[in-house]
Amino acid sequence: MKPILKSLAGVTGGLLLSLGALADTTEDAKAEALFEAVFNENLDRSPVFQTYLGMKTNYDQWDDLSPEHEREGYAQTRDHLTRLQAIDKSKLSADVALSYRLLEDDLKQDIEFEQWRLHNYPVNQMFGTHSMVPSFLINQHRVDTVEDAQAYIGRINGVPKLMIQLTANLEERAKAGIIAPKFVFPYVISDSENLLKGAPFTKGEDSPLMADLRKKVNALDTDDKTKAKLIKDGEKALKKNLKAGYTHLISYLKKLEKKADTRDGAWKLPKGGEFYNAALRKTTTTELTAEEIHNIGLKEVARIHGEMKAIMKQVKFEGSLQDFFVFMREDDQFYYPNTEAGKQRYLDEATAMIDNMKGRLDELFITKPKADLIVKAVEPFREKSAGKAFYQRPAPNGSRPGIYYANLYDMKSMPTYQMEALAYHEGIPGHHMQLAIATELTGVPKFRKFGHYTAYSEGWGLYTEYLPKEMGLYEDPYSDFGRLAMELWRAARLVVDTGLHYKKWTREQAIDYLVTNTPNPEADCVKAIERYIVMPSQATAYKIGMIKILELREKAKAEMGDRFDIRQYHDLVLTSGPVPLTVLEERVNQWIAGASK
């Protein structure tokens, strides 16, 4: 070839490469624009989620719970999938291709689950619109201006419509043969009635919402006349509309209660077996069957029992493992008094444990969250029925820190020997590290930052109960027993969840299994089984997720040898946002392969 032609060929080749890269960049841009559009279109449908994100749009509104709105949502999901699949994924860069895959899988799963849209209990003792309303207004609805206070009152005035929609949803399920078990109703009726106690409904101290509104209004930088009017308007809204909405709900629930029965498992629902299998796949992000999960649980329970017996020897306890369980349940040394002082001591010590861990994060992590974390007791209005402990992620705009909630309603359910593991799980290095880092990620689509895969998130939480053991923490053998007790609890969940929903165990059988095989008090076991009954499959996520995260870490260690850095491994797990376990495994395998080159 002559020099001039060679030169032209080089230019042409370079031009073609550039055009190819441009085409790929354009396809990336199209995909990223769609990711943003999908997130925003979903966000537009939820004033409640907008507030969770720290936004003040539609600040006086609730989500629309009507069947029409739900149908529109599924239609929008199908439209999103059509628009996504119009993009040529073969031209996407690796990072964008991962986002494409995750969104496509999520959309397909949402569409698949439309057939199971009624297979849930919108009102139960763990969560539901009835408890969301007060907890949301108290914890999420910030009042920084007079307009914010007016929006708060606007939301109170919107409660009757919300409760009418909620009872219509419950009635639709009832007609399909889907009614929560009988034990649920006393809890939810009591929680709803508690909101209507106190001023302005009855004499005495302010009701929870009146106290919250008064406190927020009085903190405003405005004149006393304006504050007085806002408080008066709030009282009127509560007395008229909140009361009307909850009275309607309570009346309906009392009628529905008469139709409820004592069958507890998902097997009782229409096509219940098929539904439970689908729920397991969604929750665990694996193809594990109910039988396989049940057997993993039995094996893990046996292993942890063995480790507990070693601790019994260490503390020189004489007797059987069950005797040791009774000792741990009943000995007063492991419980703070059920007083304000006892509760405050628990909160102070849990905070100190988290603060100590904050100072050691560099040993394990490269990326750390900017958002702060605080420890709070669950509010009195919901502490009787709320879970033992839970975490709330920080607002993206920094207006709200991460919160670790400890339920101190009954201090006998919060043994001090479990305090350390619980603080690590809900706080640092557990959910706060995971969810705050995800919230603060840059260059990742919002649907990934705020996405959720239960096995990933709860697997990480349980893994981070174990991680401090490797750092030399849990120095007190009883605290180490507490760590094992919490891991045992999650292993037993695999047994009882599949027992209830697959093997048709009764509520009593499942409670008895936990009482026999764990050190938790019977009240704990009852509340736990009742939780698993209303949330089929959810309880399987913790242990399945932990097993996979630990298994992948050990594989990387074995194959990478001296090149393995635990801080890099944790960065790999945390800095892409939530992913299914299958995707996490692929990413770890790619990391191992890349390190070996």
From TrEMBL:
Keyword field contains Signal: yes
Signal sequence interval, chain numbering: 1-23
One Pfam family in the UniProt entry: DUF885
Annotated keywords: Signal
Domain of life: Bacteria
InterPro entries: DUF885
Name of the protein this chain belongs to: Lipoprotein
Species name: Simiduia agarivorans (strain DSM 21679 / JCM 13881 / BCRC 17597 / SA1)
